[in-house]
């Protein structure tokens, strides 16, 4: 039975996002996912809200929370791998369910200084590497 | 003489951003620029603050204002050209001065569904087209 007093209750993660990522942690608004691509430290923030496609579909409070959580995650991710720059973006041309990418970039990384989306072939983590980075990310975001 | 009571007073637009764009309007926080590329309706928001590189360099109030102005500009831009999706992103791998792209995208546009950054060669507006779109954008954002 759906708990209609809780706006998160009806939230479900888009199956394509689920297939391409590992869950990291839930912040106040967003579920944080790790993209299964070892080429860059690449997180995705998904507001646990139903029917959000565009940035302007979020109410003002949620929009501000999203900006705060993106800033927090970008701060963490930049120091995490000593990155040079973070890229923060919502595209959604293919997967329409709203999601915000936070990617740590550095000179000489694959595709630098171009964008990561659509660049080359994904390089999945092996299992120990995924476990190690997920443990570190969860500690950093707790 | 610099007016130190006004945090905007020392702001200057990055010369590369200036060279690639037309000024549209100043909102409360951001200068709005039109990218001189007729392939997509493409605006850039630049907070009139000094020394901002990353999203997390903005204080919380400015971060929330940026999110609000991005949502406002994306709403306008989506209806403006009947676009299918807006892309909102800050990369800054080349031009480090903080700037936020808001681009209106649709099925079949150049590069769809990939990102616009680094895609093909820019198509500058001719003068009448630039004047017409700038007039419409200024009316929509006033």
The greatest interface here is:
A-B, 36 and 36 residues
Shape of chain A: globular
Oligomer state equals: homodimer
Q: Average pLDDT value of chain A?
A: 95
Q: Kindly report the spatial arrangement of strands forming the biggest sheet of chain A.
A: 1-2-3-5-4
pLDDT below 50 for ≥5 consecutive residues: which ranges of chain A? Answer: none
What's the helical proportion of residues of chain A? 25-40%
Instruction: Please trace the helix and strand order of chain A, writing H or E for each element.
Output: HEEEHEEH
Number of strands of chain A: 5
User: Structural class, from secondary structure content of chain A?
Assistant: alpha+beta
| Largest sheet, strands/sense/barrel of chain A | 5 strands, antiparallel
Which value, in Å, is the CA radius of gyration of chain A? 15 Å
The termini of chain A sit apart by: 30 Å
Report the β-strand fraction of chain A as a percent range.
Answer: 15-25%
Number of helices of chain A: 3
How would you explain this protein's 3D organization?
Two copies of one chain form a homodimer. Chain A has a five-stranded antiparallel β-sheet. The first copy, chain A, is an alpha+beta fold and 142 residues long. The mean pLDDT of chain A is 95. In chain A, a hairpin with a 6-residue loop joins strand 2 and strand 3. Chain A is built from three helices and five strands.
């Amino acid at each position: 039975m759906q708990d209609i007093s809780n706006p998160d209750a009806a939230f479900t993660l888009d199956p394509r996002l689920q297939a391409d990522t590992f869950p990291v942690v839930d912040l106040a608004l967003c579920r944080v996912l790790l993209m299964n691509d070892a080429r860059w430290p690449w997180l995705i923030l998904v507001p646990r809200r139903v029917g959000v496609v565009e940035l302007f579909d979020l109410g003002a409070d949620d929009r501000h929370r999203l900006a705060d959580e993106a800033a927090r995650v970008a701060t963490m991710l930049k120091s995490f791998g000593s990155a040079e720059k973070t890229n923060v973006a919502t595209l959604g041309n293919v997967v329409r369910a709203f999601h915000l990418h936070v990617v740590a970039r550095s000179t000489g990384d694959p595709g630098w200084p171009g964008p990561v989306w659509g660049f080359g072939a994904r390089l999945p983590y092996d299992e120990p590497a995924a476990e190690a980075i997920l443990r570190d990310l969860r500690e950093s975001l707790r």
